[in-house]
Amino acid sequence: MDLNTLRQFLVVARLEHLSRAADELRVAQPSLSRTIGRLESELGTPLFDRAGRLQLNDSGRLFRDYVERSLGELDAGRRAVADAAGEGFGTVRLASETLLTLTAPLAAFKRTHPAVEVELHQWSAEDMARQLRSQDLDLCVASQPLRWDGLETVRLFEEAVGVGMPLGHHLADRPSIAVDELADEQFITASKGHWLRLLLDRLFAGSGLTPKIVCETNEASAIAELISAGLGIGLVPGLARRTAIRAPGVWIPVDHPDCRRTTTLYWGAGSRLSPAALLMRSALTDWAWTSH
Fold this sequence. Notes:
By secondary structure, the chain is an alpha/beta fold. The chain is built from 10 helices and 11 strands. Strands 3, 4, 5, 6, 9, 10 and 11 form a 7-stranded mixed β-sheet that branches. A two-stranded antiparallel ribbon has the order 1-2. Strands 7-8 form a two-stranded parallel sheet. The longest helix has 28 residues, at 58-85.
């Protein structure tokens, strides 16, 4: 059981598709299939269900978690040696559900620490939790709880989430609005699993309603542009409406105490953060989020 076999297994486990995994790994599909078969023979149990589409089974998920942690520890050791042997602060690996939130503090960070390399990723909450667990990520910023107990956290900010509407919308002159009044409106929102979509579904479910969704996109700028174009309305966090580039429209508070966003910084409780990651953690926790 060599490292290459384990890394190939993780790709197949993530994609649950042999041909796509082979393309990503740039290996022949029959060779990859034999590699997975040998691994299963060595472990004495199948790791995938093969009835219909390829699916990771309970044994596969259990083994995947151990492989991710083991390879993460190995990579962390390599980075620690590189940091100790080199000069400077190295690289920090940071992820978020939306990079718009981080634009201002990252710009200030690079001005203060130009020698630090910042590796950015835009991932779902589930992917960020897995990458933290495998130590393939140093820090992440999420607007929903991450499903893993081995994390340390710092709350960065909390803000109201309102409804964005195009100019001239029949509700655009309202000082505030109730969820029930939005029942017949067409929504532009994020895809399932994104914090914005989870909030929309939760608010409507609390009133026994289902939102009418006409477009799904995880690009905050696209949501704003589509709302401005009159194609629908959508939930918009306060921070997004204060960005320098804004599509014309109206932002109206929602009459619901839970229509809010809490944004949190996460890192692995047992991970050894590099000097670059420690600098970034301090920069994000010390950032004056409300004033900016």
